[in-house]
Design goal:
Number of helices: 16
Structural class: alpha/beta
Number of domains: 3
Shape: globular
Strand order of the largest sheet: 9-8-7-10-11-12
Largest sheet: 6 strands, parallel
Strand content: 5-15%
Number of strands: 18
CATH superfamily of the largest domain: Glycogen Phosphorylase B
CATH topology of the largest domain: Rossmann fold
CATH architecture of the largest domain: 3-Layer(aba) Sandwich
Amino acid sequence: MVVIPNDKDQKHALEYDVLCREYGICAVTAQYSISTCTEGIDILSSIEQYDKIYDLIKKEGPDLVCSAQINVAVEMAARELKIPHLMNIYQTDQDSFRIKWLDVYPHYHSADSELFSEMWGKGLHIHSKCIRVAYENRKQVIRREKENKDLIHILSIGAFYERKNQLEVIKFILKCKNDGMQVRLVFLGNDSSVYGDICKQFVRENELEEYVKFKGFVHNVEDYFCNADLMILASKVESYPGVIVESIANHVPVLTTPVAGVPELMKDGYNCLALQGYESDDIYAAFKRYMVFRNENKIQDIIRNADTTFKENHTCAIVGNKLEDYYTWILQDYKSRYICKKEIKKLFNEFLENKILNGADSYTKCNIWFLYHIDRIVKQKKPQKVIIWGAGYFGKIVLEWLTIINCIKQFAGFIDVKKKGEYLTYPILDQEEIENCDLLFVAVSDLNSRLDIMKYLEEHGMKRNETYFMAINSPIRI
């Protein structure tokens, strides 16, 4: 049985229903919150959702519960019902595990790369296993005869996020255009985002409409493989991307960044062409190598080797057997021995009773779990100088956090490279002020700016989740 997540309006993406009907899977719906990182758990929502999740699991009486990402409500319910729970989550930052988190996580985990399986397993001291992505061709892909054999058709697949790095792919196409190379790029994936708009604007400004097409989310991905000569994956943060599996299964060569778990199976010049970095110049250099392979009739060797990689690692039979073996082992290993929802709720009620949260914004309420753990660190370290980096929307929110964790008296001011003077009556400081700062919050929304700030802080001896914390948490680096 699959439990499909509903949003606050009790609606969900219709694609879930289509897939369940297609595969003959029984499905129900429920509302529950998940997190993609240890810092991002919405503990108040998880406690609120617990009863309905408990009733759903109890009614169905499964032998095993599996969940995607971090789902605390499901874990607490599974513990009460003495049913093992397997968590499936991939990307993370090693720094996430510097905090000694309360034990609300499943003690069984799987990931699609050895890298992240090991990172989660060691980070949370739980059992983890690498089980690769499975893929099955739903229909035979028949290559279409090309009218212009010199024209290279390129695919890039994935929703538009900064970490997916699609803008650099478009810049690569611009280089091809300027050099007179015949290329056409098709993007598949949801492009309705701020980053998607930035990418489309770049296409318009550089008159690339003939060269770059945005198709949005599509069901018939296989149809696009029929025309594709190459698939480009430019991501800066991934685990082991499923689009690589789809591409090699459909005999489309892959040009990919060496991100995360990709090098575990994909070897440059053997079954793929690997980039040396993450910029458009790196894509262009790898593409020129692709053209050499193509012109020397060696690209078929890469396709054949990639097909062997697929058959040895990604068929439904191979992955299914590994999953079944892991499920069986979990059932034999499981013992109900973990703290339950009542204890968790008691801990947070005690925390909430001693904090002023009346009128707190929704973002702060979603971050009570994070603040609870920061509060414990603050009580132990007793910081003397606190700084917020970012004098804007999130800076104002974090200023309220300092009241909650009793650090407002130690607050020295904001750092903001674009502003001077004061913000919310507090001074805007120079960057050098971090030298004797023992607690800092990064309250900046722009991804690249956050990465630059993190690099700067760590070059000056600060450590994430120890002496500095992020107001916005997600897997943004490896």
